[in-house]
Amino acid sequence: MKQSEMLLPTLRENPADAEIKSHQLLVRAGFIRKVASGIYSFLPAGTKVLRKVEAIVREEMENAGALEMNMTALQPSEHWKETGRWNTFGPELMRLNDRHNREFALGATHEEEVTAIIRDEVKSYKQLPLTVYQIQSKFRDEKRPRFGLLRGREFLMKDAYSFHSSNESLDQAYERIFQAYTNIFTRLGLNFRAVIADSGAMGGKDTHEFMVLSEVGEDTIAYSDKSSYAANIEMAPVVDTYEASTDQPKEREKVATPNCKTMAEAANALGHSISEGMKAIMFKIDDEKLVMVLTRGDHEVNDVKLKNLYDASLIDLASEEEVKAAIGAGFGSLGPVGVSETVEIVADHAVKGLANATCGANEDGFHYTNVTPGKDFEVTHYADLRFIQEGDLSPDGEGMIQFAKGIEVGHVFKLGQFYAEKMGANFLDENGKNQTLIMGCYGIGVSRTLASIVEQYHDDSGITWPKQVAPYQVHLLALNVKKDEQKELAERLYTTLKDEGVEVLYDDRKERAGVKFADSDLIGIPLRITVGKRADEGIVESKVRSSGVQSEVHENELVDHIKELLKEL
């Protein structure tokens, strides 16, 4: 492709709203353009990269036995209402009405739609197992779109769904897709980890996220420094190694602590370490039940673990008004002593080992000292309810926990029978009996993956695309097209490279050499071939974008030289 005929508008300055490198560079290099907040169009070069990412995804999904299909983006509300997610999915679901006032949603995900299709078309165990997938735009009304393609309101996703007659069959499909994802992200050249995760609003129990390691990631990965263990921080269990205090319980005392709203402030005022305090936070379970959760003062409540403990659909912090109505005090003064029986008390394992601890006195401006579980209050249930911390023992018993930031690019779920039961998706088994289908779900954020590649492949001058997804393999520059010898050699090389099957972008523009070099570095094509002062000798300069390694090559040796370099990249 000749660059003079290419829609590749480069910019010298970063967009004002671009906070991270992938957003900045994809806009500046002419790969994407913003249409509205969280909504981007892919220009020709960006589309070429996107299609190459898609090709790798398709190849590995089909190797795993998945069949491609294409479902509608516009979904009737009836299917969402069958599963109850029309009300529970939240404001991220983009809803609209047609001219007949029928309710629709723009597809945020396709569990309901694919289940409806399979419910109508699959009737027998003989048609199972079955795995289908699509690559399609998804729509979610993010409250705060940010980071360009990493958190948008419209994005490209590969979503797959598997259907089974047994859990053993689901396990086998899960392993196949897990391996396919490992292959995909490895082939894309990404530094990633597969981590244990929470399924969230998608349902299901067993699930893993594929996380690209990056400091701009919005998720925290807890991983062992000695083993392959890795989990999303929300899901990493804490090993219960707490030893009970040997201190003799003392008499409880109420102490005035004016203006102490946090554990740190209370600990400082009372002259003890924050780990000697008990933190109490009130949650509302499924909009009904009030639960007080206790942790040690230096620990934080993990709301995902709390949700799983109660097998709840929804948990949220109780409002200060609700807390005052139930306890009689506001935030910062809550504690478990003397709490009404209408409020259930659950505690993290670390709490049961405390003695003579500090906690809120359920009276604004006061705390209790010398509070001991079992003596001063009773706990309904002890469980692992806190976030894991760096330095904790790894859950697999090997090494200690460290943290890293990650960008979620893939997620695999064992959904079980949630959607099939809600929507009546059944099949006849070998004995002619009606059984409920078992499902798996597997997603890759394709456009998010593209941005993640840029986060890992760039330098101060621009993008450094890995060859497997680069829009072109070679960037051919004619530094001065007004000079016949340069233009003629460049045109000759352009034709030769195309004939040899090399993807080449030919910069034939009437621009200064400095502009061409800067644009080439910004765009990030793996190899640059420069036709310059020695064109009359048939000699050009080659440069590897990622390493900066340069060499002079005669035109007769150039094709072999390029093919050899591409093999090494």
TrEMBL record:
Role noted for this protein: Catalyzes the attachment of proline to tRNA(Pro) in a two-step reaction: proline is first activated by ATP to form Pro-AMP and then transferred to the acceptor end of tRNA(Pro). As ProRS can inadvertently accommodate and process non-cognate amino acids such as alanine and cysteine, to avoid such errors it has two additional distinct editing activities against alanine. One activity is designated as 'pretransfer' editing and involves the tRNA(Pro)-independent hydrolysis of activated Ala-AMP.
Assembly, per entry: Homodimer.
NCBIfam families: PRK09194.1, proS_fam_II
Subcellular location, principal: cytoplasm
Phylogenetic placement of the source organism: Bacteria, Bacillati, Bacillota, Bacilli, Bacillales
This protein's UniProt keywords: Aminoacyl-tRNA synthetase, ATP-binding, Cytoplasm, Ligase, Nucleotide-binding, Protein biosynthesis
One Pfam family from the record: tRNA-synt_2b
GO MF: ligase activity
Domain Aminoacyl-transfer RNA synthetases class-II family profile: 33-466
Organism name: Pontibacillus salipaludis
Protein's name according to its UniProt entry: Proline--tRNA ligase
Protein family (similarity comment): Belongs to the class-II aminoacyl-tRNA synthetase family. ProS type 1 subfamily.
